[in-house]
Amino acid sequence: MVQTTRTLALISVLTALQVIVGSLLSIQFLTTKIVFTFVILALSAQLVGMWPTAISAGLANLLGSLLFPKYAFFPGFILTAFLVGLTYGYFLQTRVTWGRIIAANLVAMLGFNLILNTLWLHLLYHIRIPMLLATRLPQEIIMFVVSTVMLVGLFRLPVTAKIIENERKRW
Fold first, then answer.
1. pTM of the model
2. What do you get for the CA distance between the two ends of the chain, in Å?
3. Which candidate in 68, 78, 114, 129 could, as Cys together with 140 as Cys, close a disulfide (CB 3.0–4.6 Å)?
4. Are 70 and 114 contacting, i.e. CB atoms less than 8 angstroms apart?
5. Where are the domains of the chain?
6. CA distance 32 to 97
7. The dihedral of CA 29, 34, 38, 39: what is its sign?
8. Domain boundaries 5-169, corresponding CATH code
9. What is the mean pLDDT of residues 92-121?
């Protein structure tokens, strides 16, 4: 994808949306956080590709942590956000199918969100990993199902296909 001013503006808007959804429209407790930024990441993957989506996700996490701090800052969460963005970008940048959505969600939610974020929480708060997994595993399984259904529904909407098609023509 050619990096134009229009593309940079689009990435900036998507990053700002991630900050808003991830920081202001999220439900957060000490060891769990329920967010719907996966919708923006999936759209970003389709609109701007893998690497811009990953960088945008990491930057949005950093900005959200700095602008709307809720708990202690830890750079590991930025790495997780970057890897989740990279995962959605990898699986969803060319085409969207059930299989690709499921694969992206498996790697992102059950891989990075569950395993890496559990490790970060353990390092940050010294809570035993089995105790963290006991609360985080059910949350990630539920979010896996919710995100899969939401993304399949989103990409089946004619308006979504039209937006992506129009944006790709402008590249």
1. 0.92
2. 7
3. 114
4. no
5. 5-169
6. 29
7. negative
8. 1.10.1760.20
9. 95
